[in-house]
Amino acid sequence: MMGSTKIVGSMDEIDITLEDDGERGVERPETAEQDNPVLQALRRLATRAMGLTGADIERIVREARLKARREKRRLTYADIEAGIRGHRPPVPYDIRWRFAIHESGHAVVHHALRLGSIKGLTIDTKDGGHNAVTFATNAPDTEDWYGRLLAMLMAGRAAELIVLKTVSAGSGGAEQSDLARATRIALDMEQALGFGGNLPLLYLHHRDPTPVLSADPRLAARVHQRLELGQARATEVLMENRPVFDRLVRALFDAEVLDGAAVIAILTAPS
Q: How many angstroms separate the CA atoms of 193 and 226, rounded?
């Protein structure tokens, strides 16, 4: 799986937490984080643990605690981090490279289109890569905003095409994949959000897009066109930000895990 609410794909799992970027003058915890080594360590562990379940974490902490007891010493953050890394099998070079490209694509487009903040990226999970991003709640709920969201969802696939000239099945293949999420959003735009190309004033609820799209080829074509436009927009953004994209891919490939501060430092560094 390469990717609060989650957007999850077979190559991608993206945590989505709504935040209000409109607040001003409010000191958030991250403002003091760079001066607090405990918060830094916790952030690093949280980023490293993205994609793990609660049961996974509980088992890792229990094993790390037993190891520290056997060695007659206190449990450390390093013990837990080592346990998280040991919990995952090594990923072959070429697959890890593709994961880094895919996740970096999501991050660059998310940042460039001002969708919200980025909390962390990892390609060190048992299912592949993982993005933790937030979406601002004060953004206008317009067709353009949903178009930007589609571009972000299609950005992993677009990134693979730009660099590798091929795509993996990581964007699809599951109910919570990039393509599944994007398809549902594009269908909502056509049938439920008032942006449709045909009878836009109708609200047509659906639980499963598969029978709806299978029964209506014209609707399916309009939904697919929105996905194509999203991928095209993602491609354009990535090409415009190619040096930044390349730097992030290399950094993520080397480190395997980057917290939000590290990602933003790369995205905002002078070219």
A: 14
CA proximity to 125, closest of 102, 155, 141: 102
- State which amino acid sits at residue 225: Q
CA distance 27 to 45: 23
From residue 55, alpha-carbon distances to 3, 49, 60, 64 in Å are 21, 12, 9, 14
Whole-angstrom Cα distance, residue 147 to residue 221? 16
Distance CA(188)–CA(214), nearest Å, equals: 15
Q: Which amino acid is at 258?
A: L
Rounded Cα distance, 100 and 161, in Å = 13
As a whole number of angstroms, the distance between CA 248 and CA 266 comes to 6
- Distance set, CA 125 to CA 25, 55, 207, 226, 254 (Å): 37, 15, 30, 31, 15
Amino acid in the structure at residue 92 = P
Instruction: Tell me which DSSP letter residue 198 carries.
Output: S
Mapped onto helix, strand or coil, the DSSP state of residue 28 is coil
CB-based contacts of 198, cutoff 8 Å, min separation 6: 190, 218, 219, 222
Flag whether the pTM goes above 0.85.
Answer: no
pLDDT tens digits for range 9-44: 334 444 433 333 443 333 344 444 555 777 766 777
> CB-side exposure of 229: number of CA atoms within 13 Å?
15
8 Å CB contact between 139 and 110: no
Rounded Cα–Cα distance for residues 183 and 221 (Å): 11
Length of the chain: 271
pLDDT in tens, 50-100: 767 778 888 888 888 888 888 888 888 788 877 777 666 677 888 899 999
